[in-house]
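Bit of a strange request maybe. I'm writing a small parser for structure token strings and I need a real example to test against, not something I typed by hand. Could someone generate the tokens for this chain?
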Amino acid sequence: MALLLSVGTRYRRLNVPGEEDFIGAGIHFCATCDGPFYKGEQMVVIGGGNSALEEGLFLTRFAEKVTLLVRGDSLRASQILQEKAANHPKMEIRFNTTVHEFRGKRRLSGVVVKDGKSNATEEIHPGAVFVFIGLDPNTGFLSNLVELDDWGFVRTFDNMQTSVEGIFAAGDARAGSTKQVASAVGEGAAAALMIRQYLEKLGGRRGYRGD
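Reply from user aminoacidic:
Good idea to test on real output. This should exercise your parser:
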């Protein structure tokens, strides 16, 4: 018998008041999916990595202005993306800035942000907020089954087998994956072939074929 783990990931949340209330109603996690709905409006992107800058630059196609809120005092994105963002006329980068609350009624209408240096707070009013602060794997239930890395992703060998013989992993929850749909599909297909080889070898050891 063999088992393939393909449990995926979920977008990391800020875990601040009001966040869950406005997901899909002003708070989003996909610029391609939802950015066009806010054409001509000001938008906020939260995060300082490659995804945040890539999505922020994409949103400049539709937004009047894109404000990037970065918790620390520097960006973690590639130098090329940093230069593009810094030089884009529609992008503003605010460092040492965190979100403390989302406000609104049926839809998001305000975001309370705090300056990390002065501790001053203010409320800004973007048309939409896009959160790109990472992904969390859905592997909590696997902690006592297979080996996970420090971030909770499943560790695998070259043949996509985990630390437990007969258990394989593929897709976004696998350590080292690219977190792309096309790659996840390819990994699933590759893992299926690895499982087939494993079962054939297992069947050979037991004296029968595993067809």
